[in-house]
Design brief:
Layout: H1 8-21, H2 29-48, H3 56-67, H4 71-74, H5 77-84, H6 92-102, H7 106-109
Helix pairs in contact: 1-2
Length: about 120
């Protein structure tokens, strides 16, 4: 049973367990546990290792990998590809959607970042 992570030992246990179940299929108990662990680990890391500037696109890519999402699962493949390749800015709707799906605080996603032209 998992509780809030408040020390390095529990953090390491959560990371180890996540590694064991990171490829769990959606709809399984292990997948639900994985989703919970991602939230607990993220909360602990945010508290223990604050980051002053976060590139929203890199955060999205990291969380996609953690949750096992493909660009197709986040929306229109072309649009998502443009966003992930810094060709298109995040829209307000995308920020809301990514915040909910990827458990990223919207405050991280509204930060400015440079587009590639």
């Amino acid at each position: 049973m998992w509780y809030l992570i408040d020390n390095k030992d529990d953090y390491q246990k959560a990371l180890n367990r996540f590694e064991e179940i990171k490829y769990a299929k959606r709809g399984t108990v292990e997948h639900k546990e994985k989703m919970l662990l991602v939230t607990l680990i993220s909360n602990y890391e945010t508290k223990e290792y604050p980051v002053s500037e976060i590139d929203p696109i890199e955060m999205i890519k990291i969380r996609m990998a953690e949750f096992g999402f493909s660009p197709n699962e986040l929306g229109n493949k072309t649009t998502i590809s443009q966003v992930l390749n810094y060709k298109r800015p995040l829209s307000l709707n995308m920020i809301r959607q990514f915040s909910k799906m990827l458990k990223i605080p919207s405050g991280f996603l509204v930060q400015e970042y440079e587009l590639k032209t």
